[in-house]
Prior knowledge:
- The chain is an alpha/beta fold.
- The protein is built from nine helices and 24 strands.
- Helix 2 (125-139) packs across helix 3 (180-193) and helix 8 (362-373) runs parallel beside helix 9 (394-407).
- The termini are far apart.
Amino acid sequence: MCPPPGSARRPRKPSDADKKPGGRRRPEVRQGGPRVRRAKARDHGGPGVRGPNVKVANNVARLLRGGHPWIFRSAIRRDPDLDEGAVITVIDEAGYTVGFGIVESEGAIAVRMLSVVDAPFEWDAAEMTRRLKAAVSRRERLGLPETRRLIHGEADGFPGIAVDLLGEFLLIYKYARVAETYLDTLVPLLEEHLMPEGGGIYLQDRVRPVTADERRPPAFHLKGKAAPPDVEVDEDGLRFLVDVTAPVSPGLFFDLRDGRRLIEPWCKDRTVLNLFSFTGAFALRAIRGGARAVTNVDAAARSHARCRQNLAASGIDPEACEALGGDVFKYLERFRQRDRVFDLVIVDPPPFSNVKGSVFSALRDYGDLMAAIAPVVAPGGLILAVCNAVRLSEEEFLLALGEGAMAGGRSIRLLGECGLPPDYPVLPAFIEGRYLKIKLLQLD
């Protein structure tokens, strides 16, 4: 409603408080139309935010306001000695509130943001419930399969935590030690709001360092019924067996769903080589897409065994794929020597692996891998290249693909690409959150 004539207030004269050091006036910030000013941190208090502030440089504050959820320890101007899990106010150089974060006492990340607002904030069961419901609401219209990500860490407001739905079970992944400080509050809420009736909840700990001599423990059973060794789940009409209790992966990479959808229609009447084939999710898509033949290469015999089980669960001949166990580079050289070529190569290497003394690092070796693949691709053939190495940027990945193909005597063209599916949302400024890169390439 407009004010009556003559009643509008005159703009007040800027005061010294509106100016930055050096005499320049602080710019006003648009928020939904009206001009508002950021409040000083000292204006705020309330349960959960009392105590010292953490000050960051203005360029860091800008990233945080743009959606980056981490404050690295090296970026803090004033680093108070705070307990793990303490909720604190984050301020910029001028003392204006950036938001509120949760303290991590060790490691490169000092604070994980909980909220970028100028209002008092309390990290409690009511706030967690609100965020759980919001995460569910965001996913309701996405047409997701029954196996999906329910909570995707910082993007859904839960630092260091992810939650997947696998049949009747919730699997929590703990990626940061600080998550331990609120799990006792979160788990009962997951049981109440997200756990299927008659199901259970498991926790997989991804935090504890594991040496070469150690093995990660199985996932911990927290709530509800115990999971059987094999839980059958559906993805777009294909059936997969997953192990909810597994120490690392349950046996299906849910974030690669859009990559599997991308490649399926390109498989018709093609011979397919599936490198680092794991439990055969890409192989099942290739067979359903009409591939003439599929060859899986993976060093782990148990991965080939699980692939055969997945084929059978989906009503496909368990022996439909050729299964080769061993080092990918050695098989690629053998194919080259024997002039064996494929119409389509799918390559999904781990970011890092050390199998029987053979060390692979995607950051260092993806170009060499591409050079080894290029000679075994038929003229006009395709490569689906997958990379989930956080430290390898989009530009560096494309450069590695191009240089590797050239080293292998071929040139490439980009035909299509995708990344994370919509149940894996990413905050705008969070480059590290866009870790998955999937490229469909054609070789000359």
